Amino acid sequence: MRVRLMLLAPGVILLCGVVGCTKTNPRVVTTLNTGAMLGSELPSNPLQNRVITSWIDKNAGTMSTLYGNDTAVQYARTGAQSGYPAGSALSVVTWTQQEDPRWFGGNIPAAAKSVEYVTIAPDQHFTYQRYEGSPLKQVDEEAGVAPNERTAYLLAQRAAVMP
Amino acid sequence: MASAYGARVRAVLWIALVAGLVFVGLQFVRPTLTNPPVTAELQAPPEVRAVLRQSCYNCHSNETKLPWFDQVVPAYWLVNKDVKEARAHLNFSEIGKLPAAQQRGALFEAVNMIQMGAMPLPSYLRVHPGAAVSAENLKVLRDYLMPPTPAGATPAADTSAADAQYKGWITASGAPLKVQAEFNGVEFLPDYKNWKAISSTDRPDNHTMREILGNDVAIKAIAEHHINPWPDGTAFAKVAWAQQPDGKGAVQTGAFIQVELMIRDSRKYASTKGWGWGRWRGMDLKPYGKNADFTNECIGCHEPVRQNDYVYTMPLGGQQ
Fold first, then answer.
1. How do beta strands B250-264 and A89-99 pair?
2. Would you say residue A18 has pLDDT above 60?
3. Is the reported ipTM for this assembly greater than 0.90?
4. Same domain for B139 and B170?
5. Is there a domain that residue B281 lies in?
6. Using the beta-carbon criterion (under 8 Å), do B211 and A65 form an inter-chain contact?
């Protein structure tokens, strides 16, 4: 018995070393982050645009990314004019956070909490739309000349530095 | 008949005897494995050390205690190699001489390795099931590194450096920089900033935030769910900034730190797992490292996700 064990243990080590008896850990199975998907109820998909900047709300446990169309990104990254020019379209996605299953200490997007849209028209008119809930549904729609508080906040975010 | 049978028995006995002698003889072919003195043990509470002692010290310390079946060749050879390699990477008997932040960093990596099933080495665990890290023991490590945070906002950051950096960048207005290729020959791709976002990361532990961007090939692969392996031509950028707390609980994007690239070409980059790796730091985008060996750092840390084509990020669905 003792001798059998003695031979078995190194045998198993050798065999597994050679054959590599590994099973995939669920944390590293190849997958998309489907929980953070935005669904198809939205007027447009913010992810198709380019990143202007991002921020985190520690109290709310959320993370947001601000995206812009070409006009908006061009303005945000060069800042030549003072204020987003007509034709700018911005969108913000705010996600709740989850611990990154693959990196202890990191947080990544979980379910989307809200999606917001801001557009700037030629006469400096703005529109603001807000979607919330699961699935995301429109909860606010405003338009006017003087941006509301939230719109002003979004328009004031400066671009993240990307040399 | 009887004599033929006898001859066969004799032959088998001879073979067994020779094999036995070879086996015994091999036992004397033993690379030495000594326990050097413990010079600077990890600085951590006793309960944290106890967990590591139970599961990791046999390889990652100068207090290796091999059970009898590890002393038998050929098992001994394999364990011997593992211990030497493990000590070279991470030695809990000597790590105490490093700055506290670096010791903490090593423990963060340790938790990751455990959670992803990379450590203790799976081949070792099959023979030493007692070395597995139990859920309670894992919690001891996690709670030590990330104690439940008390409420209350972080004070506002000094923004002067980030402001100056932003001003310099915005006035340059996209004038192209001359950027050197990495030491491994991987070229910088200035268009990274126009790629689409596939995820973002908040790293409160080291006060950074990142956007993970993918080029068109990557976005198409995500839409078609062909993400393992990623098609040739795929490129990812990971852009990192300092977290800039505003004093009211929100954190803005602060100073730019670095951009990293992974570029897929299964033939050109066959020797580095099919990816071209590069990291450019600071506003002058200085290539990272001293020589091409810097890629070992990248690959080493991406190793736990090798079954995932070495990619950590779970891309946001719905890109198309």
1. unpaired
2. no
3. no
4. no
5. yes
6. yes
